[in-house]
Amino acid sequence: MLWRFRREIIFILGLVLSLLVINRSYVRKYGSAGDIRYAEGEKVSYEELAAENVRLREILDIKSENRTLRKFTVCEVTSIKPSVFPAEITINKGFREGLRENMAVLSRDMFLIGRVVRAGDNASSVMTIFNAKSRISVIVDSTREIGVLEGGSIPFLFLRYIPVDSLVKEGDRILTSGYSDFYPKGIGIGEVAGVEKVPDTLFLKISIKPYGCFSGLDEVLAGE
Amino acid sequence: MSKKLIRLGEQFLIVSGLQLCVLNYMKTAIVPSFFVVWLLILAWEGNTEVALVMAFVTGIIYDIMSRNLLGTTSVLFLTLVYANCFLKPGSLAGRFVGIFFFSALYFLVFLFEYGQGFMWGGLAILKYSLLFALYNSLVYGVIELGMIKLRWKRKDYLLG
Known about the structure:
Chain A is an alpha+beta fold. Chain A has helices at about 5-30, 45-65; strands at about 70-80, 90, 105, 110-120, 125-130, 135-140, 145-150, 155-160, 175, 190-195, 205-210, 220-224. In chain B, strand 1 and strand 2 (about 115-120) form a beta hairpin. The chains are: A alpha+beta, B mainly alpha.
């Protein structure tokens, strides 16, 4: 009798197991299990540690030169979704380490990645600039015009509300304007990849090439 | 150990290796999913129990490879394989359509977050889901070509 439903049994068993795994990894990331990555016996090679050391030193160098963020925390990226042009990443620091919602998240090269949308105890979710819900107040460095950078389109993002008579051109840098509550002023995001005049509209259609696609992110800086 | 099991193990290693390579070295927005194609072929060939078990295993492996929340891809793969236990396209064209359709569907569901909606914008999702489906269909095409060639070789050998 049971043999007849073997397919269904395996399917339900698989689903239950998957949900248990999801729950476990979710709790490990956000919940009470804590940040015990190394304590759980995960093998970390000498080369990995050496590479991490170099990256952290670079960040320390940036820290001494950095004037963009008043204070920031170095965080490790634990998950990326999707793997290229991610819309959401998870970092291993949370509420306990001083992270709060809407803090800006930057790459090691001090380019904008996104902002914290949910801070758990030991981990946080970050909405990146590629997310369909991302809207950032930006400024064109050369013309000082303010626009809104919209997420959701890849690989290029779209800059809205730049007037049709603007002198913006390819290669112009795009920075955060500092007028939003989330992002400090002057953080680099990308550069203008194309400017197009759309007939019968007041604004230009400007595509922005972000400085990175964030596929190889290891450490990020979260701060304000 | 049975021949079937060894063959399955070999296929699994090859598919995992290829998937790892494309995830690490193909620096494009979209990479083909060898796992999806392999699981669909397994399900269509009647190895449904094996396909379901492999759906769970490959889902976990894929999540580790792509730094995703562990278990999420397993749920998707399991549902995909289970749905395909009842659909067994006989013709080659039917299988191509199946690969294309289910790849696009998988991509759409993958980028959907409960309570938040789609992670990318509508146009980007449409464009890249079609591209993803096309990549997977191409992978399936290459596999089918290989199989046809293999069958011809065997036929020639048997005919002397």
